[in-house]
Amino acid sequence: MTEGSEPLVSSLEPLSPVAAKQARYRSEINQLFVADRAAHNWYRFVLSFPPHLVRDYLQRFGMNADHRVLDPFCGTGTTVVECKKLGIPSVGVEANPMAQFAGRIKVDWSLDPDRLMAYAEQVADATIAALAGLDKSAIVTEGLRALNEEQEKLILKNSISPLPLHKTLVLLEQLQHQADEQCSGHARLALAKSLVSTISNLHFGPEVGVGRAKLDAPVVETWLEAIAVMVADLRELGQRAPVEAIVHHADSRQLLHVLPPQSIDAVITSPPYPNEKDYTRTTRLESVLLGFINDKAALRALKQGLVRSNTRNVYKVDDDDVWVADQAEVQRLAYEIEARRIALGKTSGFERLYARATKLYFGGMARHLAELRQILRPGAQLAYVVGDQASYLRVMIRTGQILADIARSLGYEVVAIDLFRTRLATATNEQMREEVVVLRWNG
Hints:
Layout: H1 17-24, H2 37-40, H3 51-60, E1 69-71, H4 78-85, E2 90-94, H5 97-106, H6 113-130, H7 149-154, H8 162-177, H9 184-199, E3 202-204, E4 208-210, H10 219-237, E5 245-249, E6 264-269, H11 284-289, H12 296-304, H13 328-344, H14 349-352, H15 354-372, E7 376-387, H16 399-409, E8 413-424, E9 431-441
Parallel strand pairs: 1-2, 1-6, 2-5, 6-7
Antiparallel strand pairs: 3-4, 7-9, 8-9
């Protein structure tokens, strides 16, 4: 907390035993409701925040067709999709090319659903023909298509088995041979969804990991099922009045590169949290297979465009920490983390970076909020969904409180810190809060 600022005591008050129990067992609060699945469920992060939370803040902020909403950490497009469903103009900014692609396709409802289905069936027939004669019973890899050595190093080891990979690569080849400018994006996104849900060996719980290897998987069939879901959704969504929904591939700390000054009335977003989670791993398999990342240089470029939330995307040239040099609580946390590391005798390269990663994270968020001021219209309202973390040697980081202090120091009014949900940390059994930091920019 900066010197002279008033603490938001309400955000740190412990829940009553009854309230804590209710919050603990309300895990469904972060789930995708059945009624919300259209477009949202074409492809989404396992930890995406839910559409109903976006609706709550759109209503609270009084947003309508005369306003424009921004999600500067757009992910796979939850905010922009929900805004479009409600007829509210919106814009997203996302640095991960796979996620940006997903968000862009999920707000494209102009495609003729019959054309998409016919195209998919044509590609499926061609793929099945190309796979004819494949000996699926033989547990061999000879003659199967595979990734090149550099691509193989980018994905999680054993994240997809040889036969499903071969069939996926054949399907991708047919998508390229029979490219349809209007349909190809939706078809490729359906394959990305199928990869993580059925074809690969990946599992999410909530971290991405590799489960039991599948000798085979129904690649074409699963892909066609995903296409059929899109077609059904497009029949309904395509009837709605058109409304602006744009998703830019850009760095949230450099918003003026893609957005004009004083063009945004509200922000609803969920930035990364300060933890030891490499968010690029969540989308690594589909990013490689769809061609968004082909080598280590491309992966490095992707990581450099992200707010530094973990040690795996920290580089020597990084200097976002200068933005929080006078933030006492950030400096205190970094000191405590480093002192804990030394006391525990932790000496690995990653562990030595914990304190710096913490400062770079909050510095990156400060840099983002500073630039954002030029994009906002006077009176703009903002909602940031963030969570407590204790990833760095179990030192508790109250993310919402610190983000509120940083925002206040940059001239924002801190309206509230709303509790979204709580969870128990498995390592410490401490109560971890996920909160919505509500701000206002008065200009």
